[in-house]
Amino acid sequence: MDYKKLKIENTTVTRKMRKFDEGSNNIYETVAVISKRANQIASVMKEDLDAKISEFATPTDNLEEIFENREQIEVSKYFEHLPKPTLIAINEYLNGEVYSRNPLDEMEDN
After folding, report:
1. pLDDT tens figures, 22-40
2. Which one of 45, 59, 74, 81 has the lowest number of neighbouring Cβ atoms within 10 Å?
3. Domain range spanning residue 24?
4. Residues 6 or more apart from 1 whose CB is under 8 A from it?
5. What pTM did the predictor assign?
6. Is residue 10 in some structural domain?
């Protein structure tokens, strides 16, 4: 997923609490769902960053041989300017792109 193409704010935004209650009627469940989705997004972003950074790794690294690699710096800057995983998860939740289920609710229905 190209996170740069998402139209998400990079700063903190004040939001109305009632928008988060619509799906589950419980703000704590909503926060847990958003938190788990943010962790998923963060792990995918970390894997992408690690894969791109590993392309620049040299087999013999020691303190005397450290040098600046312009391409590696550009990759790092790209990932620094991406929206935070929490903001992406909140945006997905508010747009109805996140699916969640509570196994306890399913057990009570049976």
Report:
1. 767 788 888 899 999 999 9
2. 59
3. 17-55+67-109
4. 44
5. 0.76
6. no
